[in-house]
What does this fold into?
Amino acid sequence: MTPITEVQGRRLSLSNLDKVLYRASGFTKAEVLHYYATAAEALLPHLRDRPVSFLRFPDGPDGQQFFAKNVPPGTPDWVRTAEVVRSDGTTRQILVQDLPTLMWAANLVTEFHTPQWRADAPGLADRLVLDLDPGPPANVVQACEAALWLRERLAADGFAPCVKTSGSKGLHLLVPLRPVASADVTAYAKQLAVEAERALPRLVVHRMTRSLRPRKVFVDFSQNAAAKTTATPYTLRARPEPTVSAPVTWDEVAECLDRRDPDPLVLRAPDIAPRLDRYGDLLAPLFDPEQARPLPGAAG
It folds into this structure.
């Protein structure tokens, strides 16, 4: 029998709660739902008003995975949606605005991915993202070295970037912006990636070409494009263990590099509640209007 629960006045059917999704650690679907419920206060502001794309893995990361943008069949009528214009036509996507919607979506077993713009201003980015993706045998240690260089470069333009783990192999740098065209942000991010490669040629590559990426950190600037999305802060990832794309401090980044030890930057679902108790949301500056700066060369 499928359990029925009520979340803030909304009735939800929660299925297969005992199913083990992350076999390496025995992490069950019930634990997935519990994680999202406990992380909701920090997670929801990063989802709110942004059309969500889902990476679904109903049988766990070892099973079938599929990326979904359209509103899935059976979506409750109280779940808010937004019309999104894409190159292949107009569609509707989910907006995760509240805890009931978050728990309904989490029951589908999903990663959350969001664009750098909000539904009421499509294509106007209010943040910049740089995805630092190490090519084996490079790992997050090398990503930390690239991140620290990019932090200083961004500071030269008046920015104070935040940093989070990707929940996979690398890091994401995030900068709050005064809203500006996504194409302009992409061009600026590409410039940063090219500069990083010139300054650190043994470490960084800015092109996606697979043959160039072993042993180097690919600075992916393309996720600033209006059509692209990035793993939302605090989302679980479809990895062998329940890792989370979670914010870290710059001291932790520097310590990872100094010790050449990637393990402290592998954050799992049980790690997040204690970190939130200790630090709060380290990405809170993304919501502070005083922290948002204009893109260099942009009006305003």
Notes: The chain has a mean pLDDT of 94. The helical segments are 29-47, 99-106, 140-156, 182-199, 250-259, 269-279.
